[in-house]
Amino acid sequence: MERTLSRPFFIARGGIFFLLGLLIFPVTQARAQTYDFVGLVQDGERGEAISGAEIFTPDGKKLGVSQSTGRFEVTVNNRRAHVIFKHQGYQDLDLDLGELPELIDVEVSMESNVQELAEVTTHTKRPSHDPNEAKSIDELESLQGMRIDLNDHLRQLHGVAGMNEFTNDISVNGSRTQDVTHYLGQSRIPSLRHLDFGFPGNESVLNPRLLKSITLADDPSKGPVNQGNASALVYDLQDGDPEAIHGDFVVGSVDEEANLNGYWDGRTLLFSGRLLDNTALGNLGSNFFTTPKSSRLQNNGQPCNSTTNQCNNLPDDSALKFSSGDLFFGTFKRDSTGAYSRHSLIYLEDDYRVLEDESNEASEEFPVALVQGSQGAWLYSYESVTPGTSGDWQTGFSVLLRDYQDAYHDTVFQTQNNGLESPWYEANIPVGGTVNYELGQNEQTDFQTIWSGQWSPTAKSFGAQVSYGEELEYHHQNRTFADIPADYNEDSTVKSDYLLADFAYRLHWNLTKKRGLDASLGASGGFQGRTTSLFTPFAKQDPGFLTPLPLLSLRYTNPLGDDHKVFAEAAARQSTDFQPSGYDAIKAKTTPSDEFLFGGDGAVGSPFRYAWSGYTRWYLHPALPSPEVFWNYAETRSSDYAHVNGANLTLNWLPSHHAGMGINGSVINGDYHMTDGTSLPWESNRTLDVVSNLRILPRDDSLLSFIFTYTVSNGRPLYEYRGLWNDTAQGGRGQTTNQRAVYQSTQYPEVSRKRLDMRINIDLKSHWRPLESTRFFFEADNLFANYNGTLDGWLGGTNQRQRGWTRPADGGGDLDPVVIKGLGLFIMFGIEGHLKI
User: Fold this and answer.
1) Is pLDDT of 620 > 70?
2) CA-CA-CA-CA torsion sign (785, 789, 792, 793)
3) Which of 119, 248, 491, 727 is the most buried (most CB within 10 A)?
């Protein structure tokens, strides 16, 4: 099937995006600026509001006083001003506003003057803004440099592991990849990504340059309503600068992008446009995806034939054809009361195709499509917070429309005089142009809308801070697939509609100044429920009614001195996923899990920080891994439970401006326990998963920097799907029923990869405005791809990776993973410009 690879919307290059952005964002004139400083004063030991606390400038000018609820609202004329809080019975508190990430909704803790002086903590109320949990993009970038893929930043977060190279897969504390939820502020969003066929340059749709911070919201008593069976990743967008418009542009060998951050009449405006460069990445596809004919056809160790030693290969730029890009628009406004609202709109469009020359003759060409697909989607999200004297009200809303198509093709052929023949296809198909023999296709259309709300009253309940949360999700899905058993040329479509509901009731106790106990209890007598609707307006089929287990969590934290603490948590969680059922149905499946997590973190002196944790998890009746694309597959085995153990260690060492090191490592080991007594390896298993960064800055002015990144991912399991077809029945189209099941791959039980990457930055200040600075960057990935020495297994010389699916050469009909050598030496370079207008 031919697909149009050019998209009119993305003909424009990155420079056009930049010019459009300049037209969209008006230039503000410099003017005198005041800042609203709004927050809550509370007792640092008991957590109670302090009324009558007076707020002064260092020269004695009184700015205001806190209300009976502890709330204050004052105005300062300098973002980096100092303010002093005073109250009888409490120690004076001198607060540097320049050290705060925000000036709205700040919690200020005052210590009793009869108590021993303890470290004063100042933090914001929202989990996504809490510096004790959030990791700023600047902090993540400081060790590894800016990356175009958001997942490169996520890999540095403690507890994150089990990520597959160049894909959307992510695991938190051993979870399955679909168990992690994603939030843009207060709005839950799907984990959108550009076409996920795994190639260098593939990237998350959410541009990391737009983000201020990332929070791994692991505590159910604090984080978003829906955290699934793992945790929620919360992305916080940038705020505008009232005094200038900021922006950056990138022109490189892999991507081109333009981003702008503006401020007008109290409102932040964000714009971003990105395009992947199909020329450089298209040339890369000839080696990354395909097996060149010169390597496949050998004669006495020589490529192709001994006479010419040449092959009539497809042109390099024919191996991978694609177009890929996205746009982002956002607006955000906050008033002096602390109320805010944010609108975000994301649009993306992708198209790709990978070809391989399957001819057995050096002088002939026989291009076959290995994988191909397309994607178009837009996402709108809205979030708001309305604070009041009686409490805070948070809302979130999002709408997604996505049209996705993906297909894998047969890569094992039996050549005939004028075509190919196999049990899967009609014989004697003529050779002409590009041949597409699909093992299976998956055309999927999704409409999803989510509404969430959370009420957090100021009044306590049972001595604890209390909040009530609710989230409603409506999801309509169409799936179209090739109905191979019935007719090779016939497609089948399945429709489904679901309404999912989550309810949460939370209690948060602060026992003492040095101990914290968090608990999350569900609504309706301590339960959090999720149910599906009983109406299906489009699909005309009853999805049924789900009765999941209750959710409950209890976390205890205990400091050990001033610089160290330990914690323990027990939690019951759950996730609901859409799963294939039988040959032609979709059903929602809720999987409950129990988790016990323990760990600690701290600092040894100023340069060294650490975090460690261990966990054990149990899943009840989890769904087994299913083929990514092939639809006519009904699993005959099932799992009664799964058990996963793991450990995480994160180290950061920043002894000076000139050097720094960060290491995030994990080990995950688990299995599905099958009802027939056998076992299947857990999909996120890793015998070792490490990402490490070494930063070297030889000069004091940071003009030149070197960043080395070494990653290890060992022991990722691969699966195969047996018994799909029986060659002896119905002319090769019959289905077996006694062996149709997923097993660990026989030929490739596991896939491992190692890489050593290097990035060099040259930063130059600009004397020409609006260009503030310029960075020239050079990056070389997998430096030892061609190394065959003693340590080649640990330096990336023998990497393997999964490319797709095929059937065995004997025509048995099983689906086996295709594993070829991984990423070769990949070089990219470009220029980044930072603007200030």
Assistant:
1) yes
2) positive
3) 248
Q: Give the C-alpha separation, 507 to 519, whole Å.
A: 6
435 confidence band (pLDDT: 50, 70, 90): low
Nearest to 690 by CA among 710, 665, 669: 665
One-letter amino acid at 136 equals: S
CB 237 within 8 A of CB 185: yes
pLDDT tens-digit series, residues 369-416: 777 888 999 999 999 988 877 888 889 999 999 998 887 766 665 443
Where does the pLDDT of residue 290 fall: very low under 50, low under 70, confident under 90, or very high at 90 and above? low
317-354 b/e (C-beta count within 10 Å ≥ 16 → b): bbbbbbbbbbbbbbbbbbeeebbbbbebebbbbbbbbb
Q: Which residues contact 753 (CB under 8 A, 6 or more apart)?
A: 165, 711, 712, 713, 796, 799, 800, 801, 822, 823
Residue 768's Cβ-count burial label (10 Å; 0-12, 13-18, 19+) is: exposed
Greatest mean pLDDT range, 254-263, 569-578, 719-728: 254-263
Structure tokens, 103:
């000036």
What is the biggest distance separating any 2 CA atoms in the chain, rounded to whole angstroms?
A: 97
Q: Residue 388 and residue 392: Cα distance in Å, rounded?
A: 6
Q: What is the mean pLDDT of residues 454-475?
A: 83
CA-based angle 83:86:91, to the nearest 5?
A: 105
Tell me the pLDDT band of 735, cut-offs 50, 70 and 90: very low
Q: How far is CA 28 from the centre of its chain?
A: 35
Task: Give yes or no for a contact between 731 and 422, defined as CB atoms under 8 angstroms apart.
Answer: no
Amino acid making up residue 307 = T
472 by Cβ neighbours in 10 Å (0-12 / 13-18 / 19+) ranks as middle
Phi, psi of 695 (to 5 degrees): -110, 130
Question: Distance from CA of residue 338 to its chain's centroid?
Answer: 29
| pLDDT above 60 for 419 | no
E strand map for 657-787: 659-674, 679-681, 686-696, 704-717, 719-722, 741-744, 750-765, 771-781
- Tokens describing residue 605: 């002196």
DSSP 23-76: HHSPPPPP----EEEEEEEEETTT--B--S-EEE-TTS-EEEE--TTSEEEEEE
Rounded to whole angstroms, what are the CA distances from 326 to 172, 190, 212, 302?
A: 27, 16, 19, 45
Provide Rg for the chain, Cα atoms.
28
Angle in degrees, CA 636, 638, 644, rounded to 5:
145
Residue 420 DSSP class: B
The CA–CA distances, whole Å, from 135 to 138, 226, 377 equal: 8, 21, 29
Residue 509 amino acid letter: W
Q: Reply yes or no: is the peptide bond before residue 770 cis, omega within 30 of 0.
A: yes
Contacting residues for 387 by C-beta, under 8 A, at least 6 apart: 105, 337, 338, 339, 393
Which residues lie across from 566 on neighbouring strands? 558, 600
Calculate the average pLDDT of the chain.
Answer: 76
- If pLDDT is split at 50, 70 and 90, which confidence band does 809 have? low
Contacting residues for 653 by C-beta, under 8 A, at least 6 apart: 607, 608, 609, 660, 661, 662
pLDDT band at 577 (very low <50, low <70, confident <90, very high): confident
Query: 373 near 404, Cβ under 8 Å?
Result: yes
Q: Which two tokens stand for residue 6?
A: 């050019």
Cα 407 from Cα 372, distance rounded (Å): 6
What pLDDT sits at residue 334? 77
Do 148 and 276 touch, CB atoms closer than 8 A?
Answer: no
More confident site: 691 or 515 = 691
Mean pLDDT lowest for which of 86-90, 281-285, 505-509? 281-285
At residue 315 the predicted structure's pLDDT band, cuts being 50, 70 and 90, is low
Q: pTM for this structure?
A: 0.77
Sequence letter at residue 99: E
